[in-house]
């Protein structure tokens, strides 16, 4: 066996190990339960539904999977369905303490205003979620109007 063949075998072996390790880490992160409530399905009707880029949930820390999905302002609360890995988040309007529009969340930014909701999660701890959406002020106003009518 030549040195070149040994180096190639070592290189591909290490590469396969690193890829397998990354797959396992991604799977563990996608299976990790967050502190917020989760719903089994999106609402059949909502006041407003928009595409959104999920910036995360504060209680899950900085090492979590972000992703695109659908944010729905419904009659009972706010729903977000993340596309990959698939998960539906739900926050009841009664649990929302405030709505903000910061430019960053959990150390991540795109230098545009984000929609951030501060709420009490199902373990009764203060928590927050944030999204990048097209009409931040419009959706913020819808959520605040729903909260005011409770």
Number of strands: 10
Order of helices and strands: HEEEEEEEEEEH
Indicate the structural class. alpha+beta
Cα-based radius of gyration, to the nearest Å: 20 Å
Biggest sheet, open or closed, and with what strands and sense? 8 strands, antiparallel
Using the 3D structure, state the CATH architecture: Roll
Strand order of the largest sheet: 1-5-4-3-2-10-9-6
Q: What distance lies between the first and last C-alpha atoms, to the nearest angstrom?
A: 75 Å
Q: Under the CATH scheme, which class?
A: Mainly Beta
Number of helices: 2
Average pLDDT works out at 85
Unreliable spans: 32-36
- The figure for the number of domains is 1
Q: Tell the overall outline.
A: elongated
- What portion of residues belong to β-strands? 35-45%
CATH homologous superfamily annotation = Pleckstrin-homology domain (PH domain)/Phosphotyrosine-binding domain (PTB)
What is the CATH T-level topology? PH-domain like
Percent of residues in helical segments? 25-40%
Tell me what you see in this structure:
This protein has 150 residues and is α+β, with helices and mostly antiparallel strands. It has a single domain, classed as PH-domain like. It has two helices and ten strands, in the order αββββββββββα. Strands 1-5-4-3-2-10-9-6 form an eight-stranded antiparallel β-sheet, covered by helices on one side. It has a two-stranded antiparallel sheet with strand order 7-8. The chain is elongated. The relative contact order is 0.17. About 3% of the residues have low confidence.
């Amino acid at each position: 066996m030549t040195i070149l063949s040994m180096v190639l075998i070592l290189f591909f072996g290490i590469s396969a190990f690193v890829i397998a390790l990354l797959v396992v880490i991604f799977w563990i992160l996608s299976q990790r339960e967050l502190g917020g409530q989760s719903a089994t399905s999106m609402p059949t009707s909502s006041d407003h539904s928009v595409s959104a880029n999920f910036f995360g949930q504060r209680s899950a820390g900085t090492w979590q999977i972000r992703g695109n999905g659908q944010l729905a302002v419904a009659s009972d609360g706010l729903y977000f369905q993340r596309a990959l890995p698939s998960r539906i988040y739900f926050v009841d309007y009664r649990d929302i303490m405030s709505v903000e529009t910061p430019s960053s969340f959990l150390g991540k930014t795109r230098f545009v205003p984000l929609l951030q909701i501060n709420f009490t999660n199902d373990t009764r701890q203060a928590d927050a979620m944030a999204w990048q959406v097209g009409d931040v002020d419009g959706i913020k106003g819808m959520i605040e109007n729903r909260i005011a009518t409770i």
